[in-house]
Amino acid sequence: MQRPPANTFNLEYLHEITNSLDEISKQKLKGVILTSAIPNIFSAGLDIKEFYKPDLQRLENFWSSVQDVFIKLLDLDFATAAAINGHAPAAGCVLSLSCEYRAMVNGNYKIGLNEAALGIITTPWIQAMMYQVIPMKHTETALTTAKLFDVDEALQIGLIDEIASNKEDAINRCKQYIRKFDKIPLHARALTKQRMRQTPIKILREQRDEDIRMFVDVVMNPSVQDNLKDYVEKLKNKKKK
Ligand SMILES: CCCC/C=C/CC(=O)SCCNC(=O)CCNC(=O)[C@H](O)C(C)(C)COP(=O)(O)OP(=O)(O)OC[C@H]1O[C@@H](n2cnc3c(N)ncnc32)[C@H](O)[C@@H]1OP(=O)(O)O
C-alpha cells in the first residue's frame, strides 16, 4: 500500500484495491503479502473524511466498496499474509485479519479495533473476523473498550503470529508461511480456507444491504458526527503540540 500520508482507505483507493485484487486473482500466484510503503504506518484505517459530514450517496457507495474489498480478500484462493510494518488501527487491523498470517515489526506501534472510540460500531462480519483470530472473550473486551494493543500484547493475545525485527524480516516470515503450502493441492487449501471463513463471508454476501444501512445509520447519528468532529480535531492538533 502506498497512499500517503497514512494509507487510509477512501472511496477511490478502495476501487483501486478491488481492481488490483481482480487482477491478481487471474494470475496463478502462490500467495500475496500485504505491506506498506509508508514507514511506521501499515494503515490508519478508513479515511475519516469519508464519513465526517458525508454525502449520503457517496457514504453508501463507500461502505459497499469496503464490502467488495473484504469479500474478495477473505475469499482469495491463494495464501495471504500481512507484513505489518507500523500502526494498524481499525480497518488497518481488519485488513491484517483478512490474511491467514500476520508478522508485525517490533516497535512502538498499535494494532486493534478502536471503532468504539469514534462512536462507530463494528459490524457483525468484522466482529467475526476478530473472534476467528482471538478468543471471543478477548474480542468482546477489545471491541467494547476500543483497545489498541502494543506489539507484545498483540502477540500474547494471538492477534499477530510473530514479531519481526524489521520490514524485510516480516516479509521473509510471510514468505516462509506461504511456502508451507508448496505441497498442498490448491483446491483443498482454498476450499478449507473458504469453509473456515464462511461466517464473515456469508454475512457479507447475504446481508449487504442491511450492513450498509447499519453503517449509514450509525454514522449519520448526530452524536456520532459530534464525536468524529472531536476526533478529527484531535488528529489535526497532534502536530501543533
Ligand atoms: C473494514 C472496515 C473496518 C471497520 C471500520 C473502521 C473505521 C475506521 O477505520 S475509522 C479510522 C480509525 N483510525 C484511527 O483511529 C487512526 C487515526 N490515526 C492515528 O491514530 C495516527 O494517525 C497513527 C497512529 C495511525 C499514525 O500516527 P502518526 O503520528 O505517525 O501520523 P499522524 O500525524 O497522526 O497522521 C498523518 C496524517 O494522516 C492523517 N490521518 C491519520 N489517520 C487518518 C484517518 N483514519 N483518516 C484520515 N486522515 C488520517 C492525519 O490527520 C495526518 O494528516 P496531516 O498530515 O494532514 O496532518
Description:
The protein is built from eleven helices and eight strands. With 241 residues, the chain is an alpha/beta fold. The protein has one domain (11-238): 2-enoyl-CoA Hydratase, Chain A, domain 1, CATH 3.90.226. The strands form two sheets. The chain has a four-stranded parallel sheet, sandwiched between helices. The longest helix is centred in the first third of the chain and has 20 residues, at 56-75. The model has no long low-confidence stretch (mean pLDDT 96). Ligand LG6FSS7D is lined by residues 5-6, 8, 40-41, 44-49, 66, 70, 87, 89-91, 94, 114-115, 118, 120, 122, 126, 235-236, 238-239.
How are the SSEs ordered, and which strands pair?
Elements lengths: L10 H15 L5 E4 L5 E2 L14 H20 L3 E6 L1 E4 L1 H7 L3 E5 L4 E3 L11 H8 L4 H9 L3 E3 H7 L4 E3 L2 H13 L6 H11 L1 H9 L1 H13 L1 H17 L3
Protein name: Enoyl-CoA delta isomerase 1, mitochondrial
Subcellular location: Mitochondrion matrix
GO molecular function, one term: delta(3)-delta(2)-enoyl-CoA isomerase activity
Average pLDDT value? 96
Major β-sheet, in short? 4 strands, parallel
Number of helices: 11
- From the N-terminal CA to the C-terminal CA, the straight-line distance is 29 Å
Oligomeric state of shown chains? single chain
Ligands bound, unique: ligand LG6FSS7D
Subunit structure: Homotrimer.
GO cellular component, one term: mitochondrial matrix
Main location: mitochondrion
InterPro entries: ClpP/crotonase-like_dom_sf, Enoyl-CoA_hydra/iso
